[in-house]
Automatic annotation (TrEMBL):
Keywords: Repeat, TPR repeat. The lineage of its organism: Eukaryota, Metazoa, Chordata, Craniata, Vertebrata. This is Bardet-Biedl syndrome 4 protein. The keyword Repeat applies. GO terms for biological process: cilium assembly; protein localization to cilium. Belongs to the BBS4 family.
Length: 153
């Protein structure tokens, strides 16, 4: 039977073990649960978690706002979803995905010229995203600006 020698813990290691993670709002704390409810298409539970997350973060959780906007759009509330996607674009102005969602909502509202402006802004940020150029083409088709569609090649 081997004996182990116990050394006293140093003062530094005792201090380190007493430290806790800082308290306060963590913007991403419930994102996993929001995602889980969303992919399971349990939209009512998802909206309840989103409401809780947005209350805790004072409306600054981009992911919660984004998913709520997706749900509202699925429910046919296009204008409300547009406003939420615009909030996401303000919170994260370099996000191409947010701009694409803003443009998609504008398109669904029949605001094709405004959608083109936003898609062009997204294209400046990511020139390799085929979806942006496809949707630009669809907008130009609705406006019967066929010469601009062929210029997208």
């Amino acid at each position: 039977m081997a004996m182990r020698t116990q050394f006293p813990a140093s003062a530094e290691s005792q201090k380190a073990s007493k430290k806790k993670a800082p308290e306060g709002p963590t913007f991403e704390k419930l994102n996993w649960l929001i995602h889980l409810h969303y992919i399971r298409k349990d939209y009512e539970a998802c909206k309840a978690v989103i409401k809780e997350q947005l209350q805790e973060t004072h409306g600054l959780c981009e992911y919660a706002i984004y998913v709520l906007a997706l749900i509202l759009r699925l429910e046919g509330k296009i204008q409300e979803s547009l406003e939420l996607f615009q909030t996401c674009a303000i919170l994260s102005p370099q996000s191409v995905d947010n701009l694409k969602q803003v443009a998609r909502s504008l398109f669904l509202l029949g605001k094709h010229k405004a959608a083109i402006e936003v898609y062009n802004e997204a294209a400046r940020l990511n020139q390799k995203d085929w979806e942006i150029f496809h949707n630009l083409g669809v907008c130009y088709m609705y406006l019967k600006q066929f010469h601009k569609v062929s210029a997208l090649k």
